[in-house]
Amino acid sequence: MNWDRPAASVGHHEGVEQQKDYVLRTVEERHVRFVQLWFTDVLGVPKSIQITPAELEVAMDEGLTFDGSSVDGFSRVQESDVLALPDTKTFQLLPYLADGTATARVVCDIVNLDGTAFEGDPRQVLRRALERAHDHGFSFFAAPELEYFYFARSEVPEPSGPPVPLDHGSYFDLTTNDLGSVLRRQTVLALEDMGIPVEHNQHEDAPSQHEIDLRYTDALTMADTIMTARMVVKEIAARRDVVASFMPKPLSGVQGSGMHLHVSLFEGDTNAFYDGADPYHLSPVARHFIAGLLHHAHELTAVTNQWVNSYKRLIVGYEAPVYVSWARNNRSALVRVPPTKGGKPDSTRVEYRAPDPACNPYLALAAVLAAGLAGVEGAYELPAELATNLYDLSGDQRRALGVEALPSSLADAVDRLEQSKLLADTLGEHVFEWFVRNKRAEWVAYRSEVTPFELRRYLPTL
After folding, report:
1. Is residue 6 domain-resident?
2. Shortest CA distance to 442 belongs to which of 397, 419, 402, 411?
3. Tag placement on the chain: N or C end, fewer CB within 10 Å?
């Protein structure tokens, strides 16, 4: 992954008024007919309000009022109205739409009617976390590895059996010009046309599983980009009557989909994670940051792996991290320190391997940053590197090394989250309380469901 020094002017190269003028001029010159105002609910489900260019200037200046009580996790009925305020730096044309109508999108911050930040907006949660980093002199950068599956569309409204993969390839397979490869290539081209650089893309290990790695950028832009990339993947697949899914574990017996996060802190133009005098080239900041991730890993997991299905991926035997440890080249570890490419200091980074691609990227990045900063602020001591394959160790051997496992279910993860002051402060009272209630309800609904596994295993014999 290319991790050269990021440009210091990312996201700040034009003033607000100049950016508004650019947006209005582009809409006119490109004959844009519709502008979609994008935002997400607390779970990361994308939402959109579509307006015509005639309404765009007012929306940019004043925001667009809508009923927040209609969006999960936003407002109660008695305090429902909020504003979608476009962040003009996120304006992009949408070249992938099949009908050919010139359409653009702009990501919005959600604010109260008095202009203050709305506590239920995930984007504002990440903004607060980034402001805290800035108070310490840091900028936070990230790059994800997005894994997902392609499946044939079912002819029935709901799947009656396992989803059907489009291919049976594995890691890096160079296949004939099959549909999955075509769709992935079209997706990359669409992202590049939108100004979203892709580092590389490939077939992943499982049948019909693919990966697109996005080039690093600042964390707020990356969260917007993850939401955009997921939408583009799904839209282009739907054109060919294919289902693209970021479900963490859609198939039994093969690995699930992860979203490994590569992250780093910069102080101005200097990578704060690099220290040339250290044997691992890790600065004290990097070591404390890793220690923070490990110390708070149990609390993080409900946010980075927020669905019942997420815990079908986090099991031994399918290349997903299960045990809380760190290493340089050990892919069984939760936190990995990739080697610097060509000895470049700016490529020093930390890879957090637990998240899956169905998380809310705003909340996940905010949580990861908060845990790492807690380690930096508290000067947490980094435990010893564990280079051994943790999957091969017995329970007694792992306990002797002091290695703990991540939560094994959504219920366990939410228990740990509910006890976390760090995450309560990071998410804010509004999001934290709603998220915990929603995840509790999801677990209750899951527990009450009689699954095909139970019917196959028990019905004939019990």
Report:
1. no
2. 411
3. C
